[in-house]
Every structure is written in C-alpha cells, then in structure tokens.
Amino acid sequence: MKTFYIETFGCQMNAHDSEKVVGTLLNEGYTQTSDEADAGLILYNTCSIRDKAEQKVFHRLNEYKKLHGEGKRFAVIGCVAQQEGTKIFDRAPYVSIVAGSSSYRNLPDMLARLEAGETRITGLDDRQTDETFDTEFTARTNPHRGYITIIEGCDKFCAYCVVPYTRGKERSRTSASVLAEAQRIAQSGFTEIQLLGQNVNSYHDPSGKRTFAELLAAVGEVNGIQRVRFTTSHPRDFTRDIVDVIDAVPTLCDHVHLPVQSGSTAVLKAMQRDYTRDWYLERIAWTKAAKRDISLTSDIIVGFPGETDRDFEDTITLLEEVGYDAIYGFKYSPRPNTPAIHMEDSIPEEIKVQRLAILNARQREIQRTNYARHLNQIMPIMVEHGANSRGQITGRSTQNKTVNFSCDSVPAIGSYVDVRITQIFPSSLVGEAISQPTTPSPAAIAQAALNARVNPQPAEAV
Length: 462
Ligand code: SAH
Ligand code: SF4
Ligand code: F3S
Description:
Bound molecules: S-adenosyl-L-homocysteine, iron/sulfur cluster, FE3-S4 cluster
Shape: globular
CATH architecture of the largest domain: Alpha-Beta Horseshoe
Largest sheet: 6 strands, parallel
C-alpha cells in the first residue's frame, strides 16, 4: 500500500507541484515506483487548460479501473480534480482522493485517512484559501534546475481560462521564505533556479519587504546561483524595474516570456486581458531598449469567439513587430466555468486550424531571421542532456535557446561550456565546445545520489 506511482500533466507549476507531492509522500514513509503495476496508490496530477481535458482524465481512469481489482487506491489531484470535484467519485467510484492544488498542504492528513480505510476524501477549495504550499520536502526530479513557486492562483479571470477556478485565489509567499528555499537549493548543488507563478510578476510580498524585481535581484545574488529564470509574466503587471534588474544582475537570464494572446485590441478586450496592443508593445519597447539582448517569447490563442480575419492579421503584424524567439500557439478551446463558454464558439475548426498554421509558419520565418544573428557567436551553455546517438550534447543558452553541440568529453549535466555557434535552425542552434566544462556540476552529483537510493530523500533535506 505504501508504494506510489504518479503521472503528471500540464504546466511547469503542475510538474513542480508533483515534486512537492512526491517529497511529501516520501516523508510520510511511502516509496515511489515508476511502474503503476507495483503501486498501491496511483496519483494522477491533472491539467484542464484545453481540449476537453476532463474527458481524457475519465478515459485514463477507465484504463486504471482494470487495475483496481488488485486492490489499488487512486488519487486524482490538480486542476481537473478541483474543477470536477466530487463528480469524479460519481463517475469513478474506485477513486479515493480528489484534491486540488490549494489543498496539498493537507496531504499528510488525507494520506492518514486513506490508510485508515476512508474513501471519498476531498481536498477542494473554491477560491477560499490564502495559504501557499511551502514544503521542505521537495523531491527535485530535474537534474539541473531547481523550481520555486513564489505565487499561486490567479485573480485575472481572462474570459477563456480555467486557472482562477482551478488554482484558487492569488497568494504569494514571503520573500524570506522564497530566499530560504533558494539558499537550500543552492546548497544542495543547483546553480539554476526558476521562479514560478501563473502570473509570476504579480508577486506581492506579504511581508512588504521586496518588490518582484527586488526578489529577482536577491535570488540572483544567492551564493552559487548562476542562472535565474521566471515564468510566466503577465503584461498587465510587467513593470520597467524588471528590465532594469535584468540589466543590473548578471545571473538573471536574458529571457522574458510575456504572453500577448492576441495582437488585436478588440480581441484582447473580449478576452478580458485588461491591456491594449499599444500597452503591450510599450513593455516590449522597454525590454528591447535594455542593454542586454533579452529574448522574448509569447503564448497566442487563435480563433477566440468573434476573431475576424482583420483581428488575426493584427496578431500576425504583432509577431513581426516584436520578432519573438519562440511562441506557443493554441486554438481557442471553450472551457467549463469560464465567461467565454457563454459566447458562441463562432470560429469554425477549419479556420482555427488554418490560422494556427499561418501563425506557426510566419513565426518560423521570424525565428530563421532572428537566430541567424547567433552564427559565430560564443555562448555559455548549460548542459541539459548527455550525448545523443550522434554524440551531440544538448544544452540551453541564457536566452533559453536549445543548443546542440559537439565536445571532446561528455560534460556532466548541469555544467557550463562555452560553445561557438556554427549552424542555425529555426528552433535550435548547433555548435562546438571551445572550453572545458566548468562547475563540477554538484546538481548532477546530487541527482545521481538521489537516483541511487531506493527510497530517495528529497535533495533539499541532504
Ligand atoms: N498565466 C499565463 C498563462 C497560463 S495558461 C498568462 O496569463 O499568460 C497557458 C496558456 O494557455 C495561455 O497563455 C493561453 O495562451 C493558453 N490557454 C489558456 N486557456 C486557453 C483556452 N481556453 N484555449 C486555448 N488556449 C488557452
Ligand atoms: Fe489564465 Fe489569464 Fe490567469 Fe493567465 S492571467 S492564468 S490566462 S486567467
Ligand atoms: Fe493546466 Fe492547471 Fe497548469 S490547468 S496549465 S495544470 S494551472
């Protein structure tokens, strides 16, 4: 019974939640297995952002049902759990726990009740809690990057989006608690930190000590930290001091992910994004005026109800004006509980498909031009994967670009190598190492130790 298997879907916040859930379970005496057949408890950490996600969960649960005869228990957690609530028990009575992310701090209690034989255990929160899930028991599964959630939930209520309903009220951790975690991460060997939040820059220190930009600077100054990333920034709360602090603190990465969603002010209004095209472009202009070459990326939705050809054209011209280094394009997908569900999903599927294809094709051309400037540049690359079948190592630049390169020795994951760029592709760069790998990659060492143990202790507790 005290063996668990976990499967995770969705965004980086969900992936990191799973690291915290796993750490909590290990601390409660559970053992993790990578084979669901061996598990007494199967957890399914779900996402409901698009595409009838809840139906996929029920489909997956039906597959799980086949295993149920063997006495397994099931927990549905994450965004579909919060969204569907006890309906999950009705449709899948063999599920024992349904818990949204706002309730994970109560996991030890939920597990004790499960062990006592209780069924239908819920951890649901309908935008009530002001508390965040801070735990020192985080099983860090990424070998080179330590994640820290600094702000949970969302109060923006964009017309299309489930997050305010699935993740609850916006609430931030104190900057002291974030910095303590950053220090623990650095001490356990990581040199790269990524700060997370659905709207990371809406961060509001409950102790009133630091602004978001000041917190960025403070994390960037933690001893041993060489790279700090943050996602996702919201244009509404994107202030000029964020650009200034990137310019001032060398460890902050040259990358801002600033989703625009649409280039049309009319569509932005219908989406309830609370900014205009010009407002957005002003923030882009600040970022471009920085001393550093800050890479810009975005999320875009095509086919929002009422989006005309003209509106879509505005999105294409915005792509060209900004010159993003990458975008994530999505077809609008009507979601339960959101205001947009009451609007007619007026854009036919084939038009959505067509617009997405045009968007991606245009973006590919933009990237081809953008990436060309990197030819012959020398970039410090952090190694993320060892050699592939062709002997190429994969890593990332500070701008978050993927770089495949050749190297005499196979550098450790988490080490840094200077790479000269010799070839350009639309979404990656190719090069050759021109320095020996530096930093003995304590992150990789900590990870190897973690993997070697049958029941790993969370890296932070080391
Ligand atoms: N908080 C972030 C984004 C979170 S969700 C922000 O406000 O920018 C990640 C991305 O999923 C969004 O940026 C949006 O592009 C996309 N998305 C969210 N809801 C969607 C929906 N109903 N249909 C299609 N794409 C959606
Ligand atoms: Fe969703 Fe909007 Fe909140 Fe982003 S800001 S999570 S898109 S409601
Ligand atoms: Fe999905 Fe929830 Fe993240 S809906 S994108 S897992 S916040």
